[in-house]
Design brief:
By secondary structure, this protein is mainly α. The chain is 73% helix and 0% strand. 35% of the residues are buried. The chain is elongated and about 55 Å long. The longest helix is centred in the last third of the chain and has 31 residues.
């Protein structure tokens, strides 16, 4: 049986992960609007990944005989000034999610829920990758500056991203 405090924190994280998906879909819509289809693809892949994260948490709660309580999802921002601004916001958002995951680990540790602490190790590693991926694009966009050719090349690279979901959501990804 899952500790109530840990269960509530995990349910809040499901909401945060689903909000992340909404945010990345909003960013994808912005990129579609300004004809950066590669960046839109990158964000759509990111949105799918966030849903996967939510479902990993959902499954973990159910596997522990806990109860998932879905909550309202806040509306995301819809306008940005530039591709750089979008990816800077994505990077800041991933830093926030890292903080939320760290808080989950702290709560799970305080409540002596060792299974939750072990489960969250995957998310800790994942957040290192998430922050690095967003920051890499930020740095590339800064280097490209206002040069359209550089933005075009970055957009083509971002268009090559492919989301491949795991066969088993419980498996380490």
């Amino acid at each position: 049986m899952m500790n109530e405090k840990v269960q509530e924190a995990f349910n809040n994280q499901i909401n945060a992960e689903l909000f992340s998906s909404y945010l990345y879909l909003s960013m994808a819509a912005y990129f579609d609007d300004i004809n950066l289809v590669g960046a839109s693809n990158w964000m759509r892949c990111q949105a799918q990944e966030e849903v996967l994260h939510a479902m990993k948490l959902f499954t973990f709660i159910n596997d522990r005989q806990g109860r998932v309580h879905l909550q309202s999802i806040e509306a995301p921002e819809v306008e940005w000034n530039s591709a750089l601004h979008v990816f800077q916001d994505a990077y800041k958002h991933e830093q926030k999610v890292t903080s939320l995951i760290n808080d989950l680990v702290d709560i799970s540790t305080q409540e002596k829920d060792h299974a939750a602490v072990q489960f969250l190790q995957w998310f800790i590693k994942e957040q290192v990758e998430e922050e690095a991926a967003a920051d890499e694009v930020v740095q590339q966009l800064k280097l490209a500056g206002d040069h359209g050719a550089g933005l075009f090349m970055i957009d083509r690279e971002l268009g090559a991203r492919i989301f491949t979901p795991p066969v088993d959501i419980r498996a380490e990804a």
